[in-house]
Amino acid sequence: MLTNNPFAKRLFSSFLDLAPILAVVLVFQILVIRQPVPDVANLMIGTLFVVLGLTLFIQGLEQSLFPLGESMAYAFARKGSLLWLLAFAFCLGFGAAVAEPALIAVAEKAANIASTGNIIEQTQIARDSYALGLRITVALSVGFAILIGVLRIIRGWPVYYPVFCAYGCVAVMTPFAPAEIIGIAYDSGGIATSTITVPLVTALGVGLATAIKGRNPMTDGFGLVVFASLTPMVFVMAFGMLI
Predict the structure, then answer these.
(1) Ramachandran quadrant class, 34 (left: phi over 0; alpha: psi -120 to 50; beta: rest)
(2) Which of 227, 231, 196 is nearest to 98 (CA)?
(3) How confident is the model at residue 3 (pLDDT cuts 50, 70, 90)?
(4) What's the mean per-residue pLDDT of the chain?
(5) Cα dihedral across residues 189, 195, 198, 201: positive or negative
(6) Which of helix, strand or coil describes residue 217?
(7) Cα 143 → chain centroid
């Protein structure tokens, strides 16, 4: 029966997760705006695609990214090489962030706006260079954040130490950063820690805390994502000061 099928259960669960959003849109469209829902057929088809995509995405996380991140963290911890573990953490953070679809889209949009505002030259080469520089800057910041976060787990430092330092840097740099880069910098943290980065980073932290004797996965394994969302603000403001 479908009720006993794990995929069918996940599909139904994804629909329930999206149901409040659909309800809000329909209520405001019909009762507040008082207009008919445009193109109902495409709306229904698109909703089905979203439900199916969300289901496949969550299924993929559970079957590949989470186990992969945990197993690799455990393997590096057992290997006992701090240098290789930190190198792996940096490369994982950099690779995950640079591949984020949201970061790619926002970097291109920022480049187009910078070109229109005469911040950079109005050429495709200048826009591509600006977008790539922004992506690399954010990816470097996430890699650095994961490296520090892994070092924190190994050394047993409280999670708020690096977070307070990052917030301090943001507060100090904001008055000196170019006005046009501050908004992008503040948004870049949330953009960089999205669909690809968060599952991998979380799995890495939990796996590492599980593998190291004396560490608690609940108290030590989490906290990597918040630092990874703060360092892009610092790095992007520095990027804006330098270009």
Answers:
(1) left
(2) 196
(3) low
(4) 85
(5) negative
(6) helix
(7) 12
**Residues 54-65: tens digit of each pLDDT:** 888 778 777 777
Instruction: Specify whether the CB–CB gap between 127 and 110 falls below 8 A.
Output: no
Angle subtended at Cα 171 by Cα 166 and Cα 172, rounded to the nearest 5 degrees: 100
Contact 168, 205 (CB under 8 A): no
Task: Give the pair of three-digit tokens for residue 183.
Answer: 């908004």
Given a cut of 70, whether residue 191 has pLDDT beyond it is yes
For 136-155, how does the pLDDT look when each residue is reduced to its tens digit (9 = 90+)?
999 999 999 999 998 998 88
Token pair in block for residue 125: 């080469």
The answer to whether the CB of 228 falls within 8 A of the CB of 197 is: yes
CB under 8 Å to 123, separation ≥6 — which residues? 115
**What's the predicted TM-score (pTM) here?**
0.79
Question: 97 pLDDT exceeds 70?
Answer: yes
In angstroms, the Cα distances linking 92 to 65, 68, 87, 200, 213 are 12, 12, 8, 8, 23
User: Taking 90 as the threshold, does the pLDDT of residue 37 lie above it?
Assistant: no
Give the integer Cα–Cα distance in Å for 143 and 89: 7
Both tokens of 47, joined, read: 């909703």
How many angstroms from the chain centroid is the CA of residue 240?
A: 21
